[in-house]
DNA sequence: AATGAGGCCCTAA
DNA sequence: ATTAGGGCCTCAT
């Protein structure tokens, strides 16, 4: 273990329902603050065989949804169901820069 | 403010 | 061991 992937899963799994996180944050908590790219890549492939993690609660730092293995549209729907408001494919929050 | 280009980290083949 | 890809991020114009 001790793989970056394991840490990523752990962090993503710790995301409470109704909330969301960014790739950068996850990468940082995973131990590599510059590995947000790997995070997306890992979630993309790993989510295929390990969809037990809320990968749809992970968005970009700009507030955009980003992408989703099962479809960006599905991701938006899931987020909205959790209480997150999305506007034109972007999340309305106050964590803006 | 929006757009373009570059670069870092990780995994798989 | 090397190459290519990815759901990105940041800087510059």
Concise summary:
By secondary structure, the protein is mainly alpha-helical. 43% of the residues lie in helices and 8% in strands.
Written overview of the protein:
This protein starts with a helix and ends in a 6-residue tail after the last strand. The protein has about 100 residues and is mainly alpha-helical. It has a two-stranded parallel ribbon with strand order 1-2. It has a two-stranded antiparallel ribbon with strand order 3-4. It is about 45% helix and about 10% strand. The chain is globular. The longest helix has 14 residues, at about 35-50. It is built from four helices and four strands. About 25% of the residues are buried. Helix 1 (about 5-15) crosses helix 2 and helix 2 crosses helix 3. The structure holds a DNA duplex (13 and 13 nucleotides).
């Amino acid at each position: 273990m001790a793989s970056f992937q394991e840490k990523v899963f752990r962090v993503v799994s710790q995301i409470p329902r109704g909330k969301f996180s960014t790739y950068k944050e996850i990468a940082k908590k995973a131990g590599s603050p510059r590995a947000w790219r790997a995070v997306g890549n890992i979630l993309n492939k790993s989510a295929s065989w390990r969809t037990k993690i809320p990968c749809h609660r992970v968005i970009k730092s700009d507030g955009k949804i980003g992408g989703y293995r099962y479809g960006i549209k599905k991701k938006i729907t899931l987020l909205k169901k959790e209480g997150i408001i999305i506007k034109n494919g972007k999340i309305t929050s106050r964590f803006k820069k």
